[in-house]
Specification:
The protein is of the alpha/beta class. Helices cover 33% and strands 23% of the residues.
Length: 604
Amino acid sequence: MCGITAYVGSDDAVDNLLTTLTNLEYRGYDSAGVALLDGSDLDVRKREGETDRLKEAVSEHPPSGPIGIGHTRWSTHGPPSDANAHPHTDCHGRVAVVHNGIIENYETLRDDLRARGHEFTSDTDSEVVPHLISERLAAGSDPETAFRESIAQLEGSYAIAAVIRGEDAVFATRSGSPLVVGLGETANYLASDVPAFLEFTDRVIHLDDGDFAVVRPDDVRLTDVDGHAVHRAPDTVEWTDGDADKSGYNHYMHKEIHEQPVALRQTVRGRTDPTGDGVVFEEFPPGSFDDVREVVFVACGTSYHAALYGQAMLRRRGVPATAALASEFATEPHPVDEGTLVVAVTQSGETADTLAAMRAVADTPARTLAVTNVVGSTAAREADDALFIRAGPEIGVAATKTFSSQVATLGLLAERLRLDNDPDATPDEAFLDGLQAIPEALESILGDHHAERVANAYGAKESYFFIGRGVGFPVSLEGALKFKEITYEHAEGFAAGELKHGPLALVTDNSVVTAVFTGQNDEKTLHNVREVQSRGAPVVAIAPESATEVRRAADETIEIPDAHPELSGLLSNVVLQLFSYHAAELRGRPIDKPRNLAKSVTVE
């Protein structure tokens, strides 16, 4: 969940480290720190709070050195404080380490180290690592061996980078947490995520679990757990550094909401052929899924809501489908066999619970497919196959454009599965044409300020409820998640029919109920709207332009263009994103940095 960065070159590292830490701040902003190495000098600076506080501290007396590591923290062990901020050092200030993940046996290691005279200054699990390395160095091991021997004592998940006084290198490894090397012309880089150094290089090597890297200014050497050389060809990232900045918007989230038409065009481009094969995946020619009898989705958070949407689209095509929370699936797996396709939906491809769910079926006959945004991610590498959503980088903690691209990709997958499983089937031209039309429809929504006006009108309520049916149900869940993530107000999403089975007890005249209408089963949802209104709560409807009955019934209606009923939810979802965004802005919330949250959950 935290962000690791490193610079190994000939120039002073501090400016690069501060820049890359700022680029990584979406991964954690409880504290930040850097350690710079200049021959025999090791200078560590760290501060509680956002990266700007570190920048202020560093500007007073800038550290220097051509090699350095940095870290931005999302707290797991110990509260945010200067002492708990990374990098951590050993007793002698010879070793500095940054760590992302959880070291499960740290208490045992710490107790043993204390018994041997080591002193600790933080509450973190990470601090054991520099002490372990220091101990191995004192025993006579060379730096690389000392690093490797220390890592061998750890249990849990981690990405770790270390610098050692007198060495011109950064030593790094990963197990369960992402780490990527950036190959520059005059320097090399290391980070938890590509956007950290994208403005400096687009050539990257994604490390696998168990990889060890020794990164020097003019060389990157990779080995496996046993010390054998590993060769990994570098990838070229197609994103640009402009894709990962705010481009004039006040927040990444607002920018990424507005990027959805472009993101969806990228997702769909070249993948539809309504009068031919229907769906064209370069990776999967027709017939690739003709042995699939059941689909099980595993996902978390926003990706889980996209999976629920995909479940609905598959079931409507006669394909048995189940969406499971990855955290539950990993401990209570769904029965699978050779006819099961387990689809892991994960924006980053590094979500710990989703990876655990994939690994839970690794020894079964089931086939696995990663639906992800990141080429080279762990999910993409570990799954049998990968299907990329092609949404471009997403920096905002609250996911927006990736949900839309996930749903569009799963819709294409659903149609491909239907065609592969029925040799007499023909492409659903209405659906595929409708998918092609969604980006233009989104542009019309983004040019309308009705969501902002409604957010301002209903900004002082105590509770917010979101209801829908069919594909409107996962959109309601997602709408509630967005609202609570960035406004910090109470929000819940329900299947519309479930409102009267308990949740209606919470509805008062100090509530707002937002109802998602898709053009299917709208009359039933209208019954639920009237139940709410009889309890005094205003209803905001999101409905197609042609839904005149809905406009007459609701207190407020935000209209969306008429669309294919299976895809109408994509339009409603963008309205809910805007509603949440403007409600959060009205409250002065830190929209891109919601409290207690970070972008990629890489610890279980």
